[in-house]
Amino acid sequence: MSIDYADALSRHTEAVLSDERAFADMWLQQVAPLSSRVAQAVQGGLLADRLAWVFVAGYQCALRHTFAQLPADSMAAFAVSEDRKGDPPLPGVTSKIVDGETKVSGYKTWVACCATLSHLVIKSDRGEKANYHCLERSSHGLTLAPKYGAFLAEMSQGVAQLNQVAVATPLDASQVSYFGLRETLYIYMAFCAWAGKFSESAEICEALIHRLARLVEQPPKDEAGLVELKLVDQAVQTLRESIPTAAAANYEQDQRLIAMYSSGIQKRELQ
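-> structure tokens emitted (271 positions)
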């Protein structure tokens, strides 16, 4: 991994990306063609003018690290959440064979980038029966409905309803167990790239990006790796606290995006 962050920062020209479509278009044009996920996270963070787009940048990279089969020139979402406690309760997604074809039905109750995604990765069933499938937005039987979220409000969020949606061969799920950690690390990476535009020391941001890049490729498997993960998290939180609230729209509220991951990392143990 070779990222010259200082050079990228010096060449960066700030642009206002007032809605998700504007960021998605810029992502597809300028970021998706880059050859490495680290480069994508860094460039996506630099292009972001608010933390909602920092999240989107890191999230897209984590998705592609987890599911390599995803089309490169797409915006995607990973729909796992199911809420069966509503009134009426919404059934989770399950699969069954219909006329010799596997079809999935049910609800996923949190979908990121609902307005701009072209592909949706869903988990069907549970336990040993669980599988992961990539659906095109236009899939027959798939309906996406918007929902309001106060947190990262500029990013569209929604609910997915699946009614006998045909699915093909399941995705390779060998990296799914690392998705949560890698999502955090890629979001941190995009945040550090973004923060360098406001921090007094871009060198600190660059050093953190390199440390995060090593962790994202090799999640901690020993005590030394776990210590490094926790130290990097502490450094990212210190960086977060140094950014003025006027740096971006809704920063005071949306900085929770970075803060909320810290507790889990600091409590993390070797698996």
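The chain has two domains: 5-67+176-267, 76-166.
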